[in-house]
Predict the 3D structure of the following.
Amino acid sequence: MANGIKLGADRWHRPSIPAAALPDVQVGPENWEPPFFPGFRSLDVEAGGVRFAGVMGGAGPPLLLLHGFPETHITWRKVAPILARRHSLVIPDLPGYGASRPCAMTPRWTKRRVGAALVALMRALGYKRFALAGHDRGARAGYRLVLDHPGTVTRFASLTVVPTLDAMLAVGHRFAQKNYHWFLLGQDADLPERLLAAAPDDFINRVFKVMNAESDSVIEAAARETYRAAFRDPAVRHAMCEDYRAALNEDVAQDQADRTAGRKLNCPVLVLWPRPEEVARRPNPIDIWKNWANDVRGLATTGGHLQPEDRPEEVLAALTPFFAASEGEPYTSGV
């Protein structure tokens, strides 16, 4: 499939142009700015079997930012302007989420397949090596990308998660109660899709409540409505269900294969987790990640699960020096 790159066009109203007919680069009106990202450009790239939507901005070494469930690329709206001072940011919707559309939904979009598509996206933009930060599902796609494409990622930051294998091995009834969506969305098609169709707004509102993100100080009204609008799309809900089906099947099996083979992430790793989500008598997330990488550091943030939105200052205080160290500066956390 041919790659097509389009910067600056409204991602909600893309022209229906075959990929082969797209020139390599098109730049839209200079005064057009995507919502939530002043000074950035919209991103419309066909690569790796996905027509990626999102935004780009900044200058410097490339940094890929990946969002989580049930959100879109606007997860990063509060931290992107600061990171863009030193990095060329690429902030896509994950395949099937938001406005990123896979060309086909079979075979399943496992984290391995998502990682390969993201590598294709970055190469289409001219980046063979890059840093990566992922939150929630984006972190799961991120560590799989690092494992499957050694030497591609210079530094990796994981926000709120431990690897899927470790998460599933530690599941107890309280985890299952709070994170019921893992096991609801992971059921065989198409029962979850039909249930979600009955009340999509109620479901996503409940998810945000469980994540302690009901306040407008975490998700302002315009951003909340953007998330709801995306979740109302049946194709997006189906992609999210497929994401969780993959997690409970292919993803955990691939993690187990890597654990058995002793494969590890071959780049420095920063781990951030919300202190309220710490569980008594459970291993520290840093200790868990040390089973997966030799160079691991991290810290807890205050606030809830949606760290880039709930505690952007704390996230920036950790990410900024960590990624600056890839430019030859020593790493010292600001938190």
Observations:
- The longest helix spans residues 234-261.
